[in-house]
Every structure is written in C-alpha cells, then in structure tokens.
Amino acid sequence: SPAMELPPSHFPAARAAAVAVGYLRYLRGGPGRGLELRELRRARRQDIDDVGHKYYLELELEDVLDKDRRVSCTAEVLYHLGSTSCAPEVQVTVQGELRSTEEADQEFYNRIRSLEKELVAENIPDSHGNVPPELEPLHLLAWVASGYVIWQNSTENTKFHLAQVKHVKQVKRNDEDLQFDYVLLLHEMVSQEVLPWQVTVLWHPQHGARVSQ
Amino acid sequence: DQVLHIVPETIQQVQHLQLLCSTLMLDLWKPLLPEDIRAGEDLHIRVPAPLVQEMKDTLDQHMISYRYILIPDVQKLVDQNMPRERSSHRQVSGDYVYTEYHSMEEIYQWMTQIQENNSELVTQHFLGKTFENRTMYYLQISQPSNKTKKIIWMDCGIHAREWISPAFCQWFVKEIVQNYKTDPKISRFLQNLDIYVLPVLNIDGYIYSWEEDRLWRKNRSPYENGTCYGTDLNRNFNSSWGSVGVSFNCSSIIFCGSGPESEPETKAVAQFIRSKTSDIVCYLTFHSYGQLLLTPYGSTTEPPSNNEELLQVAKEAAAALTGKYGTSYKVGSTASILYSNSGSSRDWAHMIGIPFSYTFELRDTGTYGFVLPADQIQPTCEETM
Q1: Which of A32, B337, B359, B364 has a 20 to 30 A CA-CA distance from B290?
Q2: Is B368 within 8 Å of A125 when comparing Cβ atoms?
Q3: What's the whole-number mean pLDDT along residues A19-44?
C-alpha cells in the first residue's frame, strides 16, 4: 500500500524519529560529537503486507558541540511484524558534512590512556543537571551506547530517552581500545518506566565505537 | 499558634465565628470554608500566636466554649514535620535564588516569606495533608476587591522527578509579586482574576526524589503490606479512572491506586477544586519533559466539546512561548501527541466543567530530560510566562 502522510507532532512519527536518532548517535556519535533532534520535518508511513510498518522521515539535527550548523537527514525505519523480537531496520542518510572530531578524539584518547587509575564516575548529569566539563566526553559516549540500546530495543509502542548515566567505569585493556562499562538509565515514555541497562563500549579514535549489551 | 476545637451551638455563634474567620484571617482547618460552619458540627481553627488572646477573649464574651485540639503548640509540630535533612545554609530573609532547585524545606520557608512580604496580594492556605502527613499549602494571588473574581488554578510537581515544574510555580509567583504594580497587563489581569498556585502537589515524592531516588515519580503511600510504594497521582483522578494507560499493580510506575481519589494528595486537590468549580475558568498543570501543550483527553481520542477554542488558545500560547527563545512546543491532545492514559488531573478538571484545562510539559525534549540543568530554569520560566 502507498505511504500516507503523518502529522510530525503525533506520537507514531515521533517514536520512529527517536529510533532514527538513536541509530544515528550510535553510528556517528563519539566523545567529541553528540547529535540531537531539532525538528521532525516530515513523516510518512507505509504498511507492507507480511513485512511490517515502514516510516520515511525527514529530520533536522544538531551537533551539541557545533550548534550553529544545521544537519539535515533522511531516515527509513522499518518495524517488523511481531517486532518485539528483533530490532527495527534503520537506514539514515546525512546531508552534508559533520564537524570533524579528529583532534578532540585523539586528545580524549591520550588523556584516558595516560590515567594512572581507572576512571570511575556516577550520576551524569547529577541531580541538578550538571556535567563537569572533564566528564562531557564520557557523557557523549553514553549517548552512543544508549543510541545503540534504543535502536535495538524499540517498537512502535515505545519511545526511549537516556535519563541519566548511573555509573561508568573504565576497564584498562592490553589492546589499543578504550573500554567503558556503563550502567545507563533509560526512560521509556509510554510506560514511564526508568530501566537500568548495562552496556560495554569499546572505543578507538580510528575504529569508532562498538557496543555490547 | 494554637488549634482550637469548637462546637458552635447556635446560629448566632456560627455567624460570629464566620465573622471572626474573615476579619481575623484565621486558618480554618475543618471545615475548609467558613460558609460550611454548622451548629452542632466540629470546628477546628488554627489561631496565629499573636491573635490567641484576642480570640479567647471574644469567644468568652460570646459564651462559645472551646478546647485545645491535641496540638497546643503548632509550631513545634510543624518543625518536627519538616523533612529532617542537612539544614539549609540559605538565609530565608535574604534573596531567594529562583535559578536553583530548592528542597521542600526551602519551599515551605519561601511560601511563608512570600506571603509575609506581599500580604496584600498573596495569602497561604491549607489544602490538605499528604500520606506522610505533610501539609499541602496553596498560594492565593488575589487583589482585594468587592467583586468575586474568576479563578485560574495552577499546580506543579504532581510527579516527583519533574523538578523544573515546582521551579516554574515559584518563578511564576515571584514574577507576579514583583511586577503587578508596574506591569499594566498583570494588574489588569488581577482586577478580574484570582490565581491559585500549588507549588508542590506531590510533596512526599518530591522529598523522596531529593533524598533517595532522583527519578521517582509517584507518591509514597504503601501497598501490599508495605512491600510496595507509590501511586501515580496523575492516574488517580476520577476521569475514566483505571480504563487505559495504567497498571493495577503497585510495583508499576503508572499504578493508578486502589480507586479514584484513593490518595490523600489527589483527594485534597479534587475536594478543593470541586468546592470552587463554578468559579474556576482555567486549570493548568505543569509537568516535564517534552515541550508540549496538551489538551483533553488522554483517555479517548473523542475531542472535547470546546476543542476548537482549546486548540486555538493553546496555539497562541505556544507561539508566544516560541517567540521568546525559539523553543518549539507541540500542541494537541494527549491521546494523539503522547499516549493514552486515564485518571489524569487535566482530564478530570475538564470533565467536571472547567472549560480551559491544559497540561504543560516543560523543557526539554530528552537531551537532559528530568535532570534539566539549573541554568535552564530562567529561560524555561521566562518563555512559559
């Protein structure tokens, strides 16, 4: 059946947009880059017999460390029938370029590698919304991790956001990767529950992030 | 302060007591309103310390007998009831910092101060008690006048973790008292309208989010033999209660309670609003997060009878809000924008006849969510004004 236009302010489109943003954060985020949804410009939905529901989205995002630049992208989010078992399929195309994070990434990498004691932190942001500047890269890396979890666990009946990083612990490794074990608190809007999630993130400036739940 | 127990015997005594209530500005605990004082029925009245002697003299003169109710020293009880945490270093007499989040203890002090400093405009009133027996107060913003005015009711903090909400209520009151003499819009507003502000509805939950669990949402009433805590107060009102978007299991964060208005906090608000329904034109309830201005209903997609008007006003409000800092708000019914839910205070207010009922979901859209940084309090509040 053909794709029908959806009001972007209504929840079906908004939930699909949250999945697309999660996926994009996982793919393109890092300690020096955090992407946020500014506006969902347009949304359409197509019901595909025996397959599922496919959403076509036009989004406007921003990089929190480069707020003046607008980032447009298109996304397709396919929720499979009986989709509680498998992750939605997502494709995203970013128009234009994102600000380079090479320098910031290398600087973060060197800083963490040179720490004598393994880094440990909790409650990011704290109760009053504060994030100490030296923890901001770990905060943004948590967005990468939560983006992955959100993408993997979303259905048409959920809308997840990262509520808070409960705990993060660096684990020193013999290879070149940095490893961080996170306990993330995810807020699910429809049930209103806050769910803890343990996630391990491996990260390297040239190899990007790998996330395991 | 003392709380007196009086049982008036005659109509004359009832009338005299009603007169005393208004001329001495006494705090009626039971019944809630002077017009409900009846001969032969219990009257509990709190008399501020400086008025105690005068009160006793006039009661003796009119041969009205009285007893001290259980609490000869109200102040001591109030002090004991205040959450016992590290004492605030902040001076109450100094300037209150509206761009920070405040503990409940500080908010109680603030309410007293703001009434004292602006007694010609602001009065503090007893609304009810929470499950943990804390007192719920609302502030009445009312310019003296001989005409009865219509009422706008605003409540904040029905969900414990939504800290930006009580911060907004405090900001709102501050803005009014600081500007009502000089801002023609505000003074014209107050000529025709009274504003009632409940800065924290879910006091027990709010305190719990400060002391134990920042992301707590519900109140703190126990169920299942004290093994499980909290009802979602915004699922506990008598608006299609228990029908959709709720859980009947106490361990759920959207547990709707054992019945409509099962919770003392809900009951206190509902009772009061019921007593004033014909005068209340607008019911506003403040939440976070989402940047949404929500109209009835959550329990059904059936539009309310005055849907067009509701939406038009909301759209104008959202546009004005966006005009301040560019923050965009979405407008629409809860059922279409968010999800289905039943038992919400906003739905209930509209169902009992309050024409303009809205839920505000304040900043942001998920970047910080419930833990909105304090440096966003000012812009959030300014745009919402």
Answers
A1: A32
A2: yes
A3: 97
Q: How far is CA B232 from CA A127, B37, B272, B283, in A?
A: 21, 34, 20, 19
Sequence-separated (6 or more) residues with CB below 8 Å from residue B375:
A129, B99
Inter-chain CB proximity B328 and A39 less than 8 Å: yes
What is the per-residue pLDDT for B68?
62
DSSP string covering B100-150: S---HHHHHHHHHHHHHHTTTTEEEEEEEE-TT-PEEEEEEE----SS--E
Residue written as token pair 């948590």: A142
**Closest Cβ opposite residue A163 in set B101, B252, B370:** B370
* Beta strand A4-6 pairing with A35-48: antiparallel
pTM of the model: 0.82
Residue A184 contacts residue A194 (beta carbons within 8 Å):
no
What gap in Å lies between CA A138 and CA B13, rounded to an integer? 70
**Domains, chain B, with CATH or none:** 2-72 (3.30.70.340), 104-213+234-384 (3.40.630.10)
Fold classification of A101-212 (topology level) = Nuclear Transport Factor 2; Chain: A, (3.10.450)
- Least reliable range by pLDDT among A71-85, A164-178, B342-356: A71-85
Pairing of strands A160-171, B228-229: unpaired
Q: Is the ipTM beyond the 0.90 threshold? A: yes
Residue B94: pLDDT over 60: no
pLDDT at B88: 36
Q: Touching check for A12 and chain B: CB below 8 Å?
A: no
Domain boundaries A4-95, corresponding CATH code = 3.10.450.10
Residues B325-351: what's their mean pLDDT? 96
